[in-house]
Amino acid sequence: PWNFPNAMLMRKAAAALAAGCTLVAKPAEDTPLSALAVAALAAEAGVPDGVFNIVPTSRPAEVGAELTGNALVRKISFTGSTGVGRKLIEQSAAGIKRLSMELGGNAPFIVFADADLDAAVDGAIAAKFRNAGQTCDCANRIFVERSVMADFAARLSEKVAALSVAQGHQSGAQIGPLINKAALEKVERLVADARTAG
Q: Which residues are part of the catalytic machinery?
């Protein structure tokens, strides 16, 4: 995924390279330059041509179909949405490819009554707002034991209101920009829905 482009790529590439395999990586369409930079570093470090391959594309479905259908590809590792994962599984079935799928989650954040509420609030801020909330392991649901819910909510609300939203390179910025216009539109829809719901 685009939200941790180098970490996600290297987590998969390191295992393949350590096993003596070549690899073809299709980076997220929004962050192809990160993967290309890693490939350049691999070449500089002496990884032979044809071992660490990057295929940037604006046509991910076509590249996915080629990788899943190509007999030379023996394993597919994918991190992303459940819908795309399902499609890759279906496309890989005929060739009985090995698959590793890390698909969309709905990470909970749980606060019990005996929790240190200040620490819990700090943890919730980190879990929800790191990388402007654009991570696959971002807390999407916060469960708080009823007896401390009002106190926790008040503290969390105060901390969220104090977050500094600015360009990522600006001093003091705590929340930077969203990845693209579609992400911005999604957030705007969520905010409008939350306001409508009260």
A: 102, 136
